[in-house]
Every structure is written in C-alpha cells, then in structure tokens.
Amino acid sequence: MLYLLYERLADNHHYIPVLNLLRYLTFRSALSLATAQLTVLAMGSRFIRWMQAKQGRGQPIRADGIERHIVEKAGTPTMGGLMFLAGIAVGTLLWSDLTDVYVWMVLLVTLSFGFLGFLDDYAKVTKQTTAGISGWGRLLVEGSIAVLAVFLMVWFGQPSPEAGHLSTSVAFPIFKRALLDLGWFYVGFGALVIIGASNAVNFTDGLDGLATVPVMIAAGTFGLIAYLLGNFRFSDYLELHFVPGVGEVGIFCAAMVGSCLGFLWYNAPPAKIFMGDSGSLALGGGLGAVAVATKHEIVLAIVGGLFVLETVSVMVQVASFKLTGKRVFRMAPIHHHFERLGWAEPTIVIRFWIISVMLALVGLATLKLR
Predict the structure, then answer these.
(1) Does 115 reside within a domain?
(2) CB 158: neighbour CB atoms within 10 A?
(3) Considering the entire predicted model, what is its pTM?
(4) Is 20 among the domain residues?
(5) How many folded domains does the chain comprise?
(6) How many angstroms separate the first and last alpha carbons of the chain?
(7) Full residue range of the structural domain in which residue 206 is found
(8) Which 8-state DSSP code applies to residue 16?
(9) Cβ-contact 83, 272 below 8 angstroms
C-alpha cells in the first residue's frame, strides 16, 4: 500500500528523499518484519484475556494423550493464530507491491486456511472435543483453495525470459537447469504441496513453541530464496531460474517471521496461548504457497524436514497399527514419542529447533551446489 503511494508520488515527480528507501526490497522487508511483530505484541495480553473469557475451559486436551498435558495445559486458550494472521496481513499489505500476483496468492492461501482453522478451533472449543471439522471436509476445502491459488499463479505469473514454461514446471535443486514440465498437471502438484505443508505444520504443533520457531526459520530461508530468485543478477549468478516479481514474496515471508517472533513471546514454554489450527494450517499453507511461487517445492521438503518427519511418523504409526496391530512409536507424532521416553518438553522443543536450523542451512546450500 505504502509502496504504491511512493510510486504514485515518484510518477508525479514529487521527490521525497526518505521515501526513496521504499524502492529497496530489503528495506521494506525489514519494515514488514517489524510491523508484523509490533502488531502481534500490541494485541498480545488483551487478546489472550479476551480469549480466556470467551473460551472458558480453553482448548480440549486429548484424554489418551500425555498425562502431564491434561494437568499443565488444560484451560490454556487457543486460536492464537489469529494474532499472527493479523500481523502477517498488516505487514504484507503495508509494505509490498500490491500489483504482484504472488503476494495476493500467498495471502489468499494463508488467510483462507487460517479461517478454516478458526472454524475447526471454534468447533472444538464450543463442543469441548478434540474432533473439529471432519478430516475429509477440511481436505476438500483446502484442496479447493490450493487449486485456485496455484492456477492463478500459473495463469497470471510473469513468464521467465529463459524458460517460458517455468510456471508449470518442477525445478530440481543441485541440477540447476533441470526442469520437469507437468503442463496443467502442475496445478494438482502445487496444490498437494500446499495441502501437505499445511497439515505437516499442524502435526508439529503439539508442544509449546515447537512449531513457531521452525516456521520462522523456514519463512526466513524462503524470504532469502524469493529475494534471490526475483533478482535477475543474483539468480543468473547462482544459475537459478529467474522468476519475475517473486521477490515481493520476501516481504510476506518477513511478515511471517515478525509475526511468529511476536507470538513466541506468549507461546514460549509455558505457553499462555496456543496457535491452534487457525495458526498451524495458515502457516503451513503459506509456506507451501511460497514454495510454489518460488519454484522451490522440493527445497521446502528439505528446509521443512522437521515437518516432514512429524508427518511421516504419523503415517508410519497408522500404517503399522492397521497392518500388524503394533505401534512403531510410543505415541505419534514423534515429539510425543520422546515425551513418552521421559524427555522434558523444553529439551524436545529446543533440539527440534536445532534440527530446523541445520535443515535450513542444507536447503540454502542447494542454491550454490552444482
């Protein structure tokens, strides 16, 4: 919004030296991060008190889950995702170029998935049950939103000069110029990436702060990737596929980092509020949409490897129990397995954060490896 105001003034020859800084993507990204963080912090305590008054007994805890959670986490309000959804929206809308299709599509996915998560959280709180919207119903809505977003990115995205079919192709890390053109089947592939990322983050959100920091790390990593791919000189030097206009997505990523940073103030152990499905579905969907926009879907599986691990642990557990009647893990997702082994919650959370940092570095290394 403010960037468009700057452009309007520049076009009319109203030169204001300070506003000239808005030309720089890095400067606007920094402002987006700060704006989103301050928005969340400003909402913080009042929002939590309001949620406590509205929700009463707070988020229901699984009766067959970790016994300690029933005692320590009962009564903690949920729907904290609404806090950083507000931060992401404010930071992105204020500082990004609102003529950019990628900005609108990642926002569409994030806010729509957040609203779906809100409905799921609302059903759980009002009925005081861990079962919200039916799984198939949620997947149907997620799929519809994701297909629409990917289709619009393909249709309205600016073609890359060196590869006109890039918008419907899958790029491979390390093999810099390798592309697999899926044609319009890419819409389905991109939608699966978004849905998978959304539900993977949802599985990870089981301990205080566990999902917040890995999302922040992944968003920061993809913010850098978007900046490099949106700049022809940098993408050419790194032998990456140039994606015109995708640099603006870096501002969205910065807003996500700032929002998560502000939310962590209240979500760090012991959490005063949970993000709920309104947060985890939105953050995961947003990361998936960014990966599709930047053509780094495979790199998302590396950078978000922790989310993949959590999802695979659930799949393995379910498959093993149905086929053999035995469980591979003491409890799934895998962070609960370590709780069953006697690990303290802060130990699990911090070690998983460390794994996320290591995976992000591996993901960034693929930008230069040949």
Answers:
(1) yes
(2) 15
(3) 0.91
(4) no
(5) 1
(6) 39
(7) 29-170+181-297
(8) -
(9) no
